[in-house]
Specification:
The protein is an alpha/beta fold and about 475 residues long. It has nine helices and 19 strands. Strands 9, 10, 11, 16 and 17 form a five-stranded parallel β-sheet that branches. The protein has a four-stranded mixed β-sheet with strand order 12-13-15-14. α4 links the parallel β10 and β11. The longest helix has 19 residues. It binds 2-acetamido-2-deoxy-beta-D-glucopyranose (2 copies). One 2-acetamido-2-deoxy-beta-D-glucopyranose (NAG) binds next to α5.
Length: about 475
């Protein structure tokens, strides 16, 4: 365990080697921090490197200027981790916070360690590698390369998770209803999908309809902005505001809003996941993979992510019990169409609906015939704008639902199966899609059409339109503190 020992030192002693203090760790350099006219020292034990020896100075970062830990007048210029020793002009000392030579009475001597300490902490808090002995269902799932199924694939039903991102509105609602047409289906073979709602231009009445038809309502964001570098409070505000909006204007029960996907599929480092924990979510689906065969299985974030991240802002810390449903990149053997986490990002120009069907089927079989990792079929409205793609997807869905061990479920229904205490006791064909919940009832047939003032991010005043069974609010719903006036 990394412990920071700070020792106040007399300035004279500061230049003497040998007041090394003992803490537990191996790799930590000896740093001496002189505060005002006293020195605060923290040091390590175990190695016998003399920190005052120029040859043993290690650049804490590849480039930049850094204090000499032993001599306040000296500093090092690091260039690709190669240090060059420099002396401040006479009567000046190196101030490591200001990064300049300054008058002795103003200088803060010694290395200022703020960032490096943070980095050390990050490293220590990094999630460990998967330990299959400790990681057991129903609370934990991991495997060395992420692609081990939790049981014999022969007994795993093949789940398809249809996932649709973006605002639901008149541009796309009919496509969705037509694809998810359950008119002639037996209850236990219903098609269920998961919608990641974005607030802007969303029709909340249509969301309520999808919800009452048994689909899962999950979150993208209110603003639709790239939140990759946002802090925990920004992430929390986006998710909690959107959840409140959906509860209020789509009549969705807050207990049913359990998962999220980062806008633009850009995970937000550890901050996003911290926000998910603090807001009580149970799953995330923001992490995408490169082209993998076999595909990875969903996992909990107790352990280090077992695959390369397509977008490099994956979480690195441990978030025990939080489920990740990664987007395996879609691809086929000869790479026609390319590789894409959202199928609408692959390229199918000049292809017929049968070609598109064949492509989806080949991509799907990589799951079906190997480890039976759930097949996440993620897409945006764009997909449907090309007729051959729309039709090809219909063909794929029609084909898949004729397979007696293939089921279209929501993300949460999949997790309920995976974490069931009787997991593995049924056969791969005995699964039944959970029935519709009778308490989910459409709260009106004729929604209110609301014309609402909205201030754009550039300050321009505009009008937005929204439909909901509820009373119209006074302003367009947005991040917290707005849209609450009704
Ligand atoms: C669903 O399918 C039925 C026939 O099976 C059809 O009559 C109906 O119009 C379809 N609904 C939609 C929304 O496509
Ligand atoms: C988070 O970021 C926002 C926007 O950049 C900023 O206004 C806010 O002060 C930050 N909050 C914290 C706790 O750092």
């Amino acid at each position: 365990m990394f412990a920071l020992i700070k020792t106040m030192c007399h300035p004279k002693e500061f230049f003497k080697p040998g007041f090394r203090r003992m803490t537990g760790s191996k790799m930590i350099l000896l740093w001496v921090v002189l505060l005002l006219f006293s020195a605060m020292c923290k040091a390590d034990e175990g190695d016998d490197v003399d920190p005052c020896d120029e040859a043993s100075f290690e650049c804490p970062k590849p480039n930049g200027n850094f204090a000499d830990p032993c001599e306040c007048r000296r500093f090092f210029i690091c260039n690709s981790y190669v240090p060059t020793k420099i002396l401040c002009p006479a009567r000046l000392l190196w101030d490591d916070r200001k990064k300049e030579c300054t008058y002795a009475n103003e200088a803060e001597c010694g290395p200022v360690e703020v960032e490096e300490i943070d980095e050390e902490k990050e490293k220590i808090e990094e999630a460990p590698k998967c330990d299959p002995e400790l990681c057991q269902l129903p609370y934990c799932l991991c495997s060395k390369n992420g692609d081990d199924p939790p049981m014999d694939p022969e007994s795993i039903p093949q789940f398809i998770l249809l996932m649709i991102d973006g605002a639901v509105n008149t541009n796309n609602f009919d496509y969705y209803e037509s694809l998810l047409n359950n008119t002639d289906q037996a209850e236990e073979k219903r098609l269920k999908a998961t919608f990641f709602i974005q607030n802007e231009y969303c029709n909340y009445y249509m969301v309520e309809r999808l919800y009452t038809e048994g689909h899962e309502i999950a979150l993208s964001s209110v603003t639709g902005e790239n939140l990759q570098r946002a802090n925990v409070s920004v992430w929390r505000n986006e998710f909690s505001s959107l959840r409140d909006i959906l509860v209020k204007f789509s009549n969705v029960s807050p207990e049913d809003i359990l998962g999220v996907r980062a806008p633009r599929l850009k995970p937000g480092y550890n901050e996003q996941y911290q926000a998910l924990i603090e807001e009580g979510f149970i799953w995330d689906s923001s992490v995408s993979t490169l082209a993998l065969d076999p595909p990875v299985w969903p996992y909990t974030l107790d352990y280090k992510i077992p695959h390369d991240c397509r977008v490099k802002s994956c979480p690195t810390k441990s978030f025990p019990g939080l489920w990740e449903l990664p987007l395996n990149s879609h691809f086929v053997g000869d790479d026609t169409g390319g590789q894409c986490p959202f199928v609408d990002q692959c390229v199918f120009s000049f292809q017929s609906s049968d070609d598109v069907f064949g492509w989806l089927k080949e991509d799907f079989l990589r799951h079906y015939e190997t480890n039976r990792s759930p097949y996440l079929l993620s897409l945006h409205t764009n997909w449907f704008l090309t007729k051959s793609q729309d039709e090809g997807l219909h063909k794929f869905v029609d084909w898949a639902r004729t397979q007696d061990d293939v089921f279209f479920v929501t993300a949460t229904e999949f997790l309920l199966w995976l974490t069931d205490e009787n997991l593995g006791q049924g056969s791969k064909t005995s699964y039944k899609t959970p029935p519709l919940l009778t308490e989910r009832k459409l709260s009106c047939n004729t929604p209110n059409s609301c014309e609402l003032p909205h201030t754009e991010s550039n300050g321009v005043e505009s009008l937005r339109y929204m439909k909901t069974c509820r009373d119209c609010p006074q302003v367009y719903p947005w991040l917290k503190d707005l849209g609450e006036q009704n």
